Amino acid sequence: xxxxxxPTVLVVDDDRxxxxxxxxxxxxxxxxxxxxxGGEEALRLLKSGPVDLMITDVKMPGLGGMDxxxxxxxxxxxxxxxxxxxxGTIPDAVKAMKAGAxxxxxxxxxxxxxVAKVQExxxxxxxxxxxxxxxxxxxxFGGVKSPAMRExxxxxxxxxxxxxxxxxxxxxxxxxxxxxxxxxxxxPRREQPFVVVDCGxxxxxxxxxxxxxxxxxxxxxxxKDKKGLIEAADKGTLFLDEIGNISHDMQVRxxxxxxxxxxxxxxxxxxxxxxxxxxxxxxxxxxxEVVSGNFREDLYYRLRVVTLKIPPLRERREDIPGLAQYFVxxxxxxxxxxxxxxxxxxVKWLCExxxxxxxxxxxxxxxxxxVLCRDGVLRKSDLCLSGLPEEPQKSQAPAAGDTSALSLExxxxxxxxxxxxxxxxxxxxxxxxxGISRRAIHYKIKKYGIDxxxxxxxxxxxx
Length: 463
Fold this sequence. Notes:
The protein has helices spanning 16-27, 39-48, 65-75, 90-99, 111-124, 137-140, 147-159, 176-185, 204-212, 229-232, 248-260, 286-291, 297-303, 320-334, 344-352, 358-372, 403-422, 427-434, 438-447, 453-462, and strands at residues 8-12, 32-36, 53-57, 80-85, 103-106, 166-169, 194-198, 213-214, 226-227, 237-241, 262-263, 272-273, 277-282, 306-309.
């Protein structure tokens, strides 16, 4: 008879002494404890495997407790969340309770009281909303005007409750992962893990171990057993991003899993059954890859039981005003900034710009513009459009003189530096934040003489 699975508790606090106390206390009661010193680290842990309860501080630098709570619900809808709060921030905790948190505890806290509340929360579990009571996506995203996106949301609503494999197609930055999240959130597996695998950035030599796991001694440096991401997605959803980049050998192994719903860890003899829904995405023409012999036809048909195609932003310009207003309001709220105004001429310019980086580029440009704008008004000169020299075809020519160009170059340099800082100077992640390629960010760093210090070496190695 197998031993019962230990509940996993994720503890988040920027005070490492509190993390140590919580880890020691909860571990003594046989909980599996994960610790994170900030919100970004907590989100990475949530994406790496299932968590039963998250305990987080309310006030933290960077991504605070409330923003972490919102982001965590996107990864694990219905995740149990308990807040730690000082007396001065009790109103924030009460607000979180109304938003769906299950409990809060004031600092300083009693260790026994903490454990008692954790036991109570895990025993009761989270209240579940019936799938039938979920509003349609057209109601949720009422600001969406384009017929193409309304049709896409109707398709998502129709197929979310089934278990069929879905292939999401679209250019980089259109929001393929967001659609995958919606399919998971609105289906019967929404209380279970949503596990993301970035097949594009994971080296092919590591991808097999990441997906299938390995046993101790399977290869050099395999010092302990490792659970793969497919197994971590059991009973939930596995999202394979950039599926077109996997090697032929990995295509064979993935096809076997899709057919048998079983995996075998590297170096192991036994097979493990895994029941998860598979959603994949790519920005390449997989049908063309099949014709050219780079992608297996049988795997292609396994993945694309249903195909969703997300149109690029330039083909649904009527959605840009609503998206722009949402991004500006959301960024101002998250950064505790006064609301910035989007004048009509800026919105007009946004609607005319070609947006080769799609929604991701729009979001990043607006966030940079909010930081750089003056007098609480976001003008087109405040926008950071890295590496894209062309202007919208309908926009007016820039005024004569070099002052404007210097201002735009300085804005671009500041945006790159800010993205590097936010990404911990990992250039690959900074490039994703900016919606540009890794080659482009290398060029810009060299062009503007940005000193990444010792951390830049680490980022190059990671890439």
